[in-house]
């Protein structure tokens, strides 16, 4: 791994424009680290078939690719619009009714039977990720009347946003639970949980902890989620800053600060953080992004995002491969200018969630020590050997300037590490004794070109299975004869 390799990961949503094997392979080649399936669209059977297709293509390409199944949540949509869409002009009056037959530019049917109960006069409702805003002016027995504050073109079946404190639907929904069960059985790597309002929304899924189960990604898109952010981070395995709905729940000027604060809290807790929504939106139709979009991606990197996400840009855009290529270029350039020292100093002052748990405290201490070694010693790489991937994710939160090589004998752990900043996930052949694991890891790192004989590397691993944490930090020089590592005395604890 060279020093100019991109460190920030890319999540790309797969849809009609990108679901063919040929395009999937090209997306992987362009820099897609995690493929996202938006389960709000299509059938469960169709989504599972696409999941298996992505797995087949990744195997044929020899890629460790993570797959994220993004649960629908209490998704409310407008009934189908005419072909070509409908333009909602600013200040125009629109009528909102419960229903799911058809909509036009004047009457919008909404597929939510409690629409008239949950939406009140004075509420601000959003459509299409908040791009179109409607203020509710009056309410009757069968309909609501609103004024368009921000107009635009509506197409297909756009999402309809109701303020979180009004919505009666529970999270997760019955549909979420059914979809989650199917994808857990299929072996999915990540589950995105929509409309999270507190930690109980995550616990309700009752999935096994990773790597036996998927990493749970809590989507932060409501005011209650922001208010309960620390408890949600504690219950989640990763966080997604879903800026579309969040931009309706809060005034737009709050979003940049919220994004920075949520990301830093999440990374301090050893959880990956994804920044999502409208990152390269203009590239749905344009071959190049706006200057503001390029700056948005770069600033998400500077904020500490583990990954940046593409939605419609790759799902329905005119050139999904060009979108990923562009995002990879912008992210890589921002990575080169990342303030590693300042970030590490900031994170060192914080502790992972629940530091009273002994295993977390030990891993926290060991990875903190390793981050200091990186700053003071000329290392070629950090080699992290982990069963669950927790040690690797904990190490990645410090944003070390050297490559982080994440080794595991569990294939799902390896795929789950595709979301972690700066981590090169590598699969070990099997769970073996400490010295053999270290030797195998160093040998693999050498064969893959990440290190070479004479390089100094740091190794983080667990020597005592009973500890269930990282309890060894070791510096070693890569020998000419890698067999020497298998006969090195075991370090004292």
Low-confidence stretches: none
What's the arrangement of strands in the largest beta sheet? 1-2-3-12-13-14-15-16
Strand segment tally:
21
Radius of gyration from CA coordinates: 23 Å
Helix content: 25-40%
Level-2 CATH architecture of the largest domain? Alpha-Beta Barrel
Descriptive notes:
With 493 residues, the chain is α/β, with parallel strands linked by helices. It folds into three domains: 9-73 and 171-335, Phosphoenolpyruvate-binding domains (TIM Barrel), CATH 3.20.20.60; 86-161, M1 Pyruvate Kinase, Domain 3, CATH 2.40.33; 341-487, Pyruvate Kinase, Chain: A, domain 1. Helix content is 35%, strand content 21%. It contains 17 helices and 21 strands. The strands form four sheets. It has an eight-stranded parallel β-barrel, surrounded by seven helices. A six-stranded mixed beta sheet has the order 6-5-9-8-7-11, with no helix packed on it. It has a five-stranded mixed beta sheet with strand order 19-18-17-20-21, sandwiched between helices. Helix 1 packs parallel to helix 12 and helix 10 (291-302) packs across helix 12. The radius of gyration is 23 Å and the shape is elongated. The two termini are 31 Å apart. The relative contact order is 0.11. The model has no long low-confidence stretch (mean pLDDT 91).
């Amino acid at each position: 791994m060279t020093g100019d390799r991109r460190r920030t990961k890319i999540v790309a949503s797969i849809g009609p424009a990108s679901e063919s094997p040929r395009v999937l392979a090209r997306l992987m080649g362009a820099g897609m680290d995690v493929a996202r399936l938006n389960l709000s669209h299509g059938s469960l059977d169709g989504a599972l078939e696409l999941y298996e297709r992505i797995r087949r293509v990744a195997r044929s390409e020899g890629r460790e690719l993570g797959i994220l199944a993004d649960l629908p949540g209490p998704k409310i949509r407008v009934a189908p619009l005419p072909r070509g869409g409908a333009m909602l002009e600013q200040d125009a009056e629109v009528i909102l009714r419960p229903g799911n037959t058809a909509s036009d530019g004047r009457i919008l049917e909404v597929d939510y039977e409690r629409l008239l109960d949950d939406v009140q006069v004075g509420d601000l409702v959003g459509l299409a990720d908040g791009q179109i805003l409607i203020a509710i002016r009056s309410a009757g027995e069968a309909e609501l009347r609103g004024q368009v504050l921000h107009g635009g073109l509506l197409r297909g079946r756009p999402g309809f946003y109701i303020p979180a404190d009004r919505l009666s639907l529970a999270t997760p929904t019955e549909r979420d639970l059914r979809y989650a069960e199917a994808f857990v059985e299929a072996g999915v790597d990540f589950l995105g949980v929509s409309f999270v309002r507190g930690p109980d929304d995550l616990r309700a899924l009752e999935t096994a902890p990773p790597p036996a189960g998927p990493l749970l990604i809590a989507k932060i898109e409501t005011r209650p989620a922001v208010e309960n952010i620390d408890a949600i981070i504690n219950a989640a395995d990763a966080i997604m800053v879903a800026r579309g709905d969040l931009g309706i729940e809060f005034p737009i000027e709050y979003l940049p600060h919220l994004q920075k604060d949520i990301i830093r809290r999440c990374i301090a807790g050893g959880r990956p953080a994804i920044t999502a929504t409208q990152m390269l939106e203009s590239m749905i139709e344009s071959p190049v992004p706006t200057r503001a979009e390029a700056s948005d991606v770069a600033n998400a990197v500077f904020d500490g995002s583990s990954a940046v996400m593409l939605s419609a840009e790759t799902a329905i855009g005119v050139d999904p491969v060009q979108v990923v290529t562009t995002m990879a270029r912008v992210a890589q350039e921002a990575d080169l200018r990342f303030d590693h020292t300042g970030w590490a100093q900031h994170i060192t002052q914080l502790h992972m969630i629940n530091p009273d748990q002994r295993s977390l405290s030990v891993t926290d201490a060991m990875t903190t020590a390793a981050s200091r070694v990186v700053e003071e010693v000329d290392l070629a790489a950090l080699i992290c050997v982990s069963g669950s991937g927790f040690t690797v994710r904990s190490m990645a939160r410090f944003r070390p300037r050297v490559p982080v090589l994440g080794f595991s004998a569990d294939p799902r752990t390896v795929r789950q590490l595709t979301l972690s900043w700066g981590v090169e996930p590598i699969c070990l052949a099997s769970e073996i004794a400490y010295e053999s694991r270290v030797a195998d890891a160093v040998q693999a790192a050498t064969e893959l070109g990440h290190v070479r004989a004479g390089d100094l590397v740091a190794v983080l691993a667990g020597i005592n299975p009973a500890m269930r944490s990282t309890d060894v930090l070791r510096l070693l020089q890569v020998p000419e004869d890698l067999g020497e590592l298998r006969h090195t005395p075991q370090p004292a604890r």
